[in-house]
């Protein structure tokens, strides 16, 4: 009887922690080398919508970019990272002020994780009642952690007035957050805080700063097509034309 019970418990833990089925609320995918994309889900306009974040495994610990959208996945993500890599998350940077980017900042700060965002993002987070980071970035900033270097970059207004991207020049990885739309998207999504007149110019700035990326991680939907950056520009140009009429 004890053997049967042990088997059941083991199977449950294996399924809960390691298994990532189609109905899982947390999915972790290998991008390249030490880079991984995590995907969580929430409901938007009555539909189940995915939200992507990314993390980087370094010798010193794990660096996370944005937090899960689903509040129930804050701790499971940390647990999964610990189980998968035997490392703790040491740093988290949010790229915008919306809940799908900042929702876990307070939770992670309480776990001893250093949380960062820009001064401009923080100001809007405070105004809108969103979770806020412990540390602020006042200008485009380069971070070097062990062998990895990346830069935060504010390219201009687009999805919001304060959206930033993260550029890994050596690996040519662009973490675009919600500024960049999936190549499968038919429109630019939630434009409630957007600057539709500047969106196209902002994307052009990203292209100039981050030339020919090998990978482009978008905020929502399919992130496997690097053509998403050009696709976003095309949609932004079309939107500007419609608004200029």
Strand order of the largest sheet: 1-2-3-4-5-6-7
* Number of helices, where a helix is a run of at least 4 consecutive DSSP H or I residues: 7
CATH fold node name: Metallo-beta-lactamase, Chain A
Radius of gyration: 18 Å
Q: What is the oligomeric state here?
A: single chain
Question: What is the structural class?
Answer: alpha/beta
Mean pLDDT: 92
Helix content: 25-40%
| CATH architectural group | 4-Layer Sandwich
Just give the CATH class. Alpha Beta
Morphology call: globular
Largest sheet at a glance? 7 strands, mixed
Name given to the CATH homologous superfamily = Ribonuclease Z/Hydroxyacylglutathione hydrolase-like
Using brief descriptors, characterize the structure shown.
single chain, 245 residues, 7-stranded mixed beta sheet, 5-stranded mixed beta sheet, 7 helices, globular, disordered N terminus, Metallo-beta-lactamase, Chain A
Structural account:
- With 245 residues, the protein is an alpha/beta fold.
- It is 31% helix and 29% strand.
- It has 7 helices and 12 strands.
- The strands form 2 sheets. It has a 7-stranded mixed β-sheet. A 5-stranded mixed β-sheet has the order 8-9-10-11-12, with no helix packed on it.
- α6 (199-209) runs antiparallel to α7 (228-244).
Give a quick summary of the entry:
This protein has helices at residues 2-17, 74-85, 99-102, 105-110, 119-128, 199-209, 228-244; strands at residues 26-32, 35-44, 47-58, 61-65, 89-93, 114-118, 135-137, 142-145, 148-153, 165-168, 173-177, 215-218. By secondary structure, the chain is of the alpha/beta class.
